[in-house]
Design goal:
heterodimer; A: about 260 residues; mainly beta; nine-stranded mixed sheet; 3 helices; 17 strands; about 55% strand; B: about 260 residues; alpha/beta; six-stranded mixed sheet; 11 helices
């Protein structure tokens, strides 16, 4: 599997095949930004492993026509800012499994569904430690495009803001737009979700759900009737949410390790 | 020898009184069936025994082996050996049956928990209940049919080995074959572990497999008539309306009565 690692300032390309093309550049000084451009040329999987410390990243991922790609991304470390741009050409399909475990993070995510029949599955999880702000914009620029966005954040001590905006302009027909946003908040800190569906085309299928709060009392009761303590039940439900839809064994093992340190 | 005693228990949710001076005693090896019309408080009784915090106990007590369990949390009651097989078992996203059961069994057995023994027994019990092995590794009740969910409840019962089993409409959603499997497995379990059963049901068909020693008819939050298995036949023939008239109980008079006593 193609693998790109960032350890603070150092970028490392491991097992990178000819199925992808990677360009990196960095600027110096106070506004230092590390730029990574990845072109996905053929069907492949990509692993992104980031250990950040006050990094500013600009990541651009381009999918060529008829290409399918799975991205498995884990980010951990300290306060950072990241901007993502995903460009999808016709008949391309991108599945992103992304996991964050950082003290502070600010992310801007731009998704452009540029070609007909392009589709994105964005499956994001985070265990919040500090202030987290996510601004996600999904642009359906071609007909028959499909976006399926799932954001799940577990917040113990931090403050989380999640803004998700999906755009379908007039004339861009037969699109499917899904948003599921959830923050499980164990703190008294204010968390917010702003789900926006800007749809100017009748021929669109759209769904959204947003939830901020604890776990469902019915779920907790069910688990506890089996003798599971409340703290264990919480851990079980957190693990369930954070691992759902992830099919990569290595990523699952890493997340389980992080959950253990998070939920002591 | 274990005993569950419900002593003059009254329970409300909001302003509505659901259980009214309810009394029942169940000993090891005994099977008690509770029947009654919809909305009479049967499921509430099962949840209150398990310590669901949605309900408020106004008066009375629940004793397990002569000790009050009212102050115990739901998980503590479960670890004492009380098990509730639910009417509508819920789905839990992302948590596999195996992980869920492993956590539950290890919570009970603590240092005595043996993983290999657990896996072997889980697979064996799944076979006995004719549960597909794949289900063990799927999310708890995710994508399960009504019948599969009920079988999963019985599987959990077998793995946790409780002394006191409450079956809340375990027969709903079961086809004829599944009803037989569930009924026979529960009866076998009771024989093997000398467990006591509290069976909440609307229908005689489950009681064809799980033979009750005592049958209680519950109307508006209290037992209005108790008897042996022949009472089931009476209900099948006459319905509950007859008993409501004879006992002269209406929900209005119960609420008034409770409020007066408060």
């Amino acid at each position: 599997m193609n693998r790109i690692c960032i350890d603070k300032e150092k970028i490392e390309l491991k097992k990178v095949t000819k199925k992808i093309k990677v360009e990196t550049s960095s600027s110096d000084g106070i506004f230092a930004i590390t730029k990574i451009k990845i072109d996905i040329l053929k069907d492949t999987d990509l692993e992104l492993d980031f250990n950040l410390d006050s990094n500013k990243l600009d990541i651009i991922i381009n999918l060529l026509p008829n290409v399918k790609c799975n991205i498995y991304e884990i980010k951990k470390g300290l306060k950072s800012k990241v901007q993502y741009t995903y460009n999808l050409d016709e008949n391309s399909s991108l599945c992103i499994n992304k996991f964050n475990y950082l003290t502070d993070i600010r992310e801007m995510i731009m998704i452009y569904l540029k070609g007909e029949n392009s589709s994105i599955n964005y499956n994001f999880k985070s265990m919040s430690l500090g202030n987290e702000t996510y601004d996600l914009v999904i642009n359906h620029e071609a007909k028959k495009t499909n976006s399926n966005i799932k954001n799940n954040v577990i917040n113990k001590d931090g403050k989380v803001s999640l803004q998700v905006s999906s755009y379908v302009p007039k004339g861009i027909t037969s699109c499917i737009v899904n948003q599921n946003n959830r923050i499980i908040n164990f703190s008294n800190n204010k968390c917010e979700i702003r789900p926006n569906l800007y749809i100017d085309e009748f021929d669109t299928t759209a769904n959204h759900s947003a939830l901020i709060g604890g776990f469902d009392s019915e779920e907790m009761f069910y688990l506890m009737t089996r003798g599971i303590k409340e703290s264990e039940a919480n851990k079980l439900l957190i693990t369930g949410i954070l691992l759902s839809d992830i099919d990569n064994t290595k990523m699952i093992k890493q997340i389980l390790k992080l959950i253990k340190s998070y939920w002591r | 020898m274990h005993t569950l005693k419900i002593d003059d228990l009254s329970v409300k949710i909001g302003d509505k009184v659901i259980l009214n001076h309810f009394n029942l005693e169940i000993n090891s090896g005994e099977t008690h069936a509770i029947m009654g019309p919809n909305g009479t408080g049967k499921s509430t009784l099962s949840k209150v025994i398990m310590g669901n915090t949605d309900y408020e106990v106004i008066s009375g007590d629940i004793l397990f082996d002569n000790k009050s369990i009212l102050k115990l949390t739901t998980d503590e009651r479960a670890r004492l050996g009380i098990f509730l097989a639910m009417q509508s078992p819920i789905e839990i996203e992302g948590v596999s049956n195996a992980d869920f059961l492993r956590t539950a069994v290890s919570s009970k057995e603590k240092d005595n928990f043996k993983l290999f023994k657990f896996i072997k027994e889980l697979e064996q019990r799944a076979d006995t209940l004719k549960i597909n092995q794949d289900f063990i590794h799927r999310g708890v009740n995710q994508g399960f049919s009504g019948g599969e969910r009920k079988k999963n409840e019985v599987l959990q019962m077998y793995m946790l080995k409780p002394d006191m089993v409450i079956l809340d409409e375990i027969d709903s959603g079961l086809d004829v074959d599944s009803l037989k499997i569930v009924g026979e497995n529960i009866t076998d379990y009771q024989k093997e572990y000398n467990a006591s059963l509290l069976v909440i049901t609307h229908y005689k068909r489950l009681l064809d497999y799980i033979k009750p020693d005592f049958v209680h008819i519950m109307v508006n939050g209290q037992i209005v008539k108790s008897g042996d298995a022949s009472l089931v036949k009476y209900i099948e023939e006459h319905g509950y309306g007859d008993l409501e008239e004879k006992t002269n109980i209406s929900s209005t008079c119960i609420v008034k009565d409770i409020l007066k006593n408060e």
